[in-house]
Write a structure and sequence with these properties.
The protein is α+β, with helices and mostly antiparallel strands and 147 residues long. It folds into two domains: 44 residues, no CATH class; 84 residues, no CATH class. It contains five helices and five strands. Strand 3 and strand 4 form a beta hairpin. The longest helix is centred in the middle third of the chain and has 11 residues.
Length: 147
């Protein structure tokens, strides 16, 4: 048995190179049919079933700021959650938000605080303004080495 971690591209390569592999990767990496998908309770993963919640093995990404948002971070979040940013996200294989879902992030933050969850912090020696958090993905945006 071999374990492959890392990027979606590495996992996709491992999946397409084996008849017995199991992996978890972004929807856009499976959308072309090169890798098989798991049908859960008769529901196939599509942009529609992910968006409406009927495909239950999907995750959402949230943006958190480290303290008060800088003007640049706030502008980036506003752009990404607006129509133009959602179009860009869709072009890169992400399933765009329903307009009602932008309020859900605030509810998720309240729930996380009540549960005692802590917002991830940048690695020592780095500053970051925004963290995009998913169950299996953390991407720091505007990451820069401290002087």
């Amino acid at each position: 048995m071999r374990t492959v971690g890392g990027s979606n591209a590495e996992i996709r390569t491992a999946l397409t190179g084996s008849d017995n592999a199991i992996g978890y990767l972004g929807f856009s990496y499976a959308e072309d049919g090169a890798v098989g998908v798991i049908i859960l309770d008769g529901v196939t993963p599509t942009a529609g079933t992910i968006k409406d919640g009927s495909y239950e093995l999907a995750r959402k990404l949230y943006f958190y700021t480290f303290g008060d948002a800088s003007p640049g971070a706030e502008a980036f979040i506003d752009f990404m959650t607006g129509p133009d940013g959602q179009q860009v996200a869709e072009e890169y294989g992400f399933v765009p938000l329903e307009s009602s879902m932008t309020d859900e992030a605030g509810e998720a933050e309240k729930g996380a605080e009540e549960a005692g969850a802590q917002t991830p912090q940048p690695a020592p020696g780095f500053d970051a303004d925004i963290a995009a958090i998913g169950l299996l993905a953390v991407a720091l945006v505007s990451l820069r080495r401290r002087s």
